[in-house]
Specification:
The structure holds two protein chains of two kinds. By secondary structure, chain A is of the alpha/beta class. In chain A, about 25% of the residues lie in helices and about 30% in strands. Chain A is built from two helices and eight strands; from the N terminus they run αββββββββα. Chain A has an eight-stranded mixed sheet, with no helix packed on it. Helix content of chain B is about 85%, strand content about 0%. Chain B has helices at about 5-35, 40-50, 55-75, 85-125, 125-130, 135-175, 180-190, 195-220, 225-255. In chain B, helix 4 runs antiparallel to helix 6 and helix 4 runs parallel beside helix 8.
């Protein structure tokens, strides 16, 4: 085979590699769905973040509009400080509320943003004041049992059946 | 000879071998600029190492994708999570199987031929003849092959992962009937370009350096006999496979241990 032929084949090989990389990046990964480029940061404090993880999505009306950048413990208030990076093209009113929700029964946790009615918008670095913590299954069950016991007016050892 | 001296000699031998290999590696790197100036040599080697390994890499990738999808389906369908098939196959391929299996196949397909070629060149005293003519065999023979291996391995690993995912798509969507939209969208929402795909490529680049270096070193240090070349070729496969697997654990621990 001539030198030109080999060069063409190597060119094809490299091109094939680039095509594979583009396929992996755009079709099989999340480069197309959300870019890290133009974002702004807002913060929120939660009493309990549950199982929320860094890079979990931030959604509004179910649509992903950002990601969790970091989760730390606020040393003064002992609350979880969640830093979120939101898409720059979407602004929220100042009194928007943040909730930690779960996708499906066993799914991953994410932050849901609900827009408020304020005329001013959240600017980069602002803190969302109205927050609702993650639902912790243990405390939910505990509350349920406590209510049952209170309803029946009897010690829970007798069983809660009426 | 007393056993203490025997132990000491063994340790010194091992250390000497490591030092020798390290100096060889530095010499190879020093020769890289010279071989970059004659890039046609590198191109010819990419053809020999990369292009000619394509068939086995693509066939293996496709087979791995098929089998992974089939097996995972039976495990996942019990939990009603068959749509996550694409995600699992993707992560397994991009993070681990793509780089590692490609490196193992590469050691068998390209590493052995490099060792045998260099070993026979040495046995036939071609390398010595080059030195006689004031041509540095490191920059003329070894370094282009080293560069070609470094370039080829990531490309091959990317293609392995890509065709594996396509194979999983064929099995999951076309054969089993998993919903195509969910197959892709769950994958896209959970696989990160930099963290998963990017780290996989870094891994395969490291493996490319390891495999090519081991092959060249074994070929260069071979005894100049038929048996010597045969042993060197065997050692290439054994050493590069073991170092790839060991290095893979270290890299995985560094890259993916934090959530």
């Amino acid at each position: 085979m001539g030198k030109k032929g080999i060069e063409t084949l190597v060119g094809l090989f490299v091109l094939l590699g680039i095509a594979g990389l583009v396929f992996l990046a755009l079709k099989a990964a999340n480069l197309a769905s959300f870019s890290n480029g133009d974002t702004y940061t807002v913060m929120a404090r939660f009493d309990n973040i549950g199982g929320l993880k860094v890079r979990a999505p931030v959604r509004s009306a179910g649509v992903t509009i950002g990601r969790i950048a970091s989760i730390t413990l606020d040393a003064k208030t002992y609350q979880g400080l969640v830093r979120m990076e939101l898409d720059k093209s979407i602004v929220f009113p100042k009194d928007s509320s943040a909730r930690i929700l779960t996708a499906g029964l066993l799914g991953d946790q994410y932050v849901g943003l609900e827009p408020g009615g304020d005329e001013k918008n959240l600017s980069p670095g602002d803190t969302i004041t109205q927050t609702q913590s993650a639902v912790v299954l243990e405390s939910l069950i505990g509350q349920f049992l406590f209510n049952k016991a209170a309803d029946s007016g009897a010690p829970p050892a007798n069983g809660a059946k009426k | 000879m007393n056993p203490l001296a025997a132990l000491g000699r063994r340790v010194l031998d091992v250390l000497r071998a490591f030092g020798h290999a390290a100096f060889f590696f530095v010499d190879l790197l020093r020769a890289v600029p010279a071989s970059l100036r004659r890039f046609s040599l590198v191109v010819a080697q990419i053809h020999a190492i990369g292009n000619l390994s394509l068939v086995i890499i693509l066939a293996s990738g496709l087979a791995v994708g098929f089998v992974l999808a089939l097996q995972m389906y039976y495990a996942l369908v019990a939990y009603g999570a068959a749509e996550s098939l694409g995600l699992i196959v993707n992560l397994a391929l991009v993070r681990e199987l793509g780089p590692v299996v490609t490196a193992l196949l590469f050691a068998g397909r390209a590493g052995t031929s490099l060792t045998a070629e260099i070993g026979l060149m040495k046995a036939g005293e071609q390398l010595a003849a080059m030195e006689m003519m004031a041509i540095d065999p490191k920059s003329r023979v070894l370094s282009p092959r080293f560069l070609a291996g470094m370039v080829s391995m990531p490309i091959l690993a990317i293609l392995f992962s890509a065709i594996g995912i396509l194979g999983a798509y064929v099995v999951a969507v076309l054969l089993i009937g998993v919903d195509a939209g969910n197959f892709w969208s769950i994958m896209q929402s959970k696989v990160d370009v930099w963290r998963d795909v990017g780290n996989g490529i870094v891994k395969s680049a490291v493996f490319g350096v390891i495999c090519t270096f081991v092959a060249l070193y074994q070929g260069h240090e071979t005894e100049a006999t038929p048996e010597g070349v045969a042993y060197a070729t065997t050692r290439t496969v054994v050493i590069s496979s073991l170092s790839v697997l060991g290095m893979d654990f270290v890299l995985t621990a560094l890259m993916f241990s934090t959530p």
